[in-house]
Specification:
Elements lengths: L9 E2 L7 H30 L2 H7 L8 H29 L1 H11 L1 H10 L6 H10 L2 H16 L2 H16 L1 H15 L5 H22 L2 E2 L6 H9 L1 H32 L3 H8 L1 H20 L1 H25 L2 H36 L4 H41 L3 H23 L22
Parallel strand pairs: 1-2
């Protein structure tokens, strides 16, 4: 055992694929860690997405136009995407419990900074800096998912990762609901009420994680696995697909209220009354996407999701052209629900893909499972980081569309083309049967047609 990995709730032996170990010890410990991982990640998502609410408080006195507001929330998205990479490797370096506590406490920095500067007269550069600070909340997702991935066996990963991510994703609608409550009761001139409410919640999440979570000593950073994941074509294909699913979820979550204000002339209260619905439904359904992928195969569910997202985008475009707010809301909320399903199914695909590669190389049993865990753990951080950049892309495309035409319709046409690409890629790589090919089954996943690049 390496120095610093004894005591302090370090677990020395962890073998979730051993059914006896899992039944007698592993499942109870894994579920306990999952609960508090969800709580901490939930608060992290709330802080990361808090600028989707802050821009609703920023009336004419702030002197910031819609394009500037889209850039503020895009800045938070960008930083959140990049910090996911170091956060992924921090779990193995410092321990899942230890890093969960530290990363939760780190959320105090952007929360208190926003509390101090959120008033008319503050410079735009200061707002950009504070929005960038909130990106640390986006990193919590990567470390939490990496940590929980190590706790659960392959047959349970779709459910566990979906529940962990879905519980975290709910932080987006919760902070938007809280913002609605503040705007509806105190008015749009009191953003500090919302920011101040999150300080004790951050402290509570850190305290509960410290008391109830564990570190896994067998989890180590594997630079060889990282290099192999970087060279692996499936890492980048799945990152592209995750841009389509999670990038859509977080990008739309950040932009929804601002689109309603800008394109349909809604007041802050009216916009806030709708913004939470889509992210809430998309978060709640994410575990369902993982469970469906466990049963029917991640590639099938992912393809169906992207086809439906393209159709929903068509509805949104039609509603925008006809200026029909009810139809627009139906289509936009459908995009949230479908992106939530896709989030669960795409993340489930990752461990299955790498275990299938092990089987294709002649490995079996624990050797194949270990290979799958090793490569999928390394790939998840990279995929999560690239996927989050999709949220930045969505906000930048919206910004350019509103600057050019005063409407988001052009942006939705762009998104429609992207979903078509996601459909084609999913089918061609993970579902198309080539002549003479065979399928290696593992948790209903199709054998990848692409090996390496």
């Amino acid at each position: 055992m390496a120095a610093g990995r004894t005591g302090g709730r370090w677990i020395e032996r962890w073998d979730p694929e051993d059914e006896v170990f899992w039944r007698d010890t592993g499942e109870r410990v894994a579920r306990r860690n999952l609960v508090y991982s969800v709580l901490s990640e939930h608060i992290g998502f709330s802080i990361w997405s808090i600028w989707s609410v802050m821009v609703l408080f920023m009336g004419p006195g702030y002197g910031i136009d819609p394009a500037g507001k889209f850039f503020l929330i895009g800045t938070a998205t960008l930083v959140g995407a990049f910090v996911r990479i170091p956060y992924t490797f921090a779990v193995a370096r410092f321990g899942g419990r230890n890093w969960t506590v530290f990363s939760a406490l780190l959320l105090l920095a952007p929360t208190t900074a926003a509390f101090l500067v959120m008033e008319p007269g503050t410079s735009y550069g200061t707002f950009l800096l504070v929005a960038a600070l909130t990106g640390v909340g986006g990193g919590n997702f990567a470390s939490s998912m990496t940590n929980i991935n190590a706790f659960f066996p392959l047959r349970k990963k779709g459910w566990a990762l979906g529940l962990n991510a879905g519980g975290g994703n709910i932080g987006v609608p919760v902070v938007q609901l809280a913002g609605l409550l503040v705007i509806g009761t105190a008015g749009a001139g009191h953003p500090r009420i919302l920011l101040g409410a999150y300080v004790p919640l951050v402290l509570l999440a850190a305290a509960l994680s410290w008391r109830n979570m564990d570190n896994l000593a067998p989890v180590r950073n594997d630079t060889g696995a990282v290099k192999e994941a970087l060279r692996e074509g499936h890492t980048w294909i799945m990152a592209f697909l995750y841009v389509g699913s999670f990038g859509s979820f977080i990008g739309y979550g950040f932009a929804f209220g601002l689109v309603l204000q800008t394109q349909f002339g809604r007041t802050p209260l009216q916009a806030a009354s709708f913004t939470f619905i889509g992210p809430l439904l998309g978060s709640l359904i994410r575990p369902v996407g993982g469970a469906l992928a466990d049963r029917f195969g991640g590639a099938r569910i992912t393809l169906g999701t992207f086809v439906a997202m393209a159709a929903a985008t068509g509805v949104v475009i039609l509603a925008a052209v006809r200026e029909s707010l009810p139809v627009f809301l139906v289509g936009f909320i459908a995009l949230f629900v479908l992106s939530g399903l896709g989030n669960g199914s795409t993340y489930k695909m990752i461990p299955g893909i790498f275990q299938n590669k092990a089987l294709a190389r002649g490995m079996s049993g624990e050797a194949a499972a270990a290979y799958g865990r090793r490569l999928s753990g390394a790939a998840m951080g990279l995929i999560g980081a690239v996927g989050a950049l999709g949220g930045l892309g969505i906000n930048l495309v919206f910004r350019e569309a509103f600057l050019a035409t005063g409407s988001g319709t052009r942006a939705f046409v762009t998104f429609l083309g992207f979903y078509a690409l996601c459909c084609a890629l999913t089918w061609a790589v993970y579902l198309r049967r080539t002549p003479g090919s065979t399928v290696v089954a593992s948790n209903a996943e199709a054998k990848p047609q692409l090996s390496t690049v």
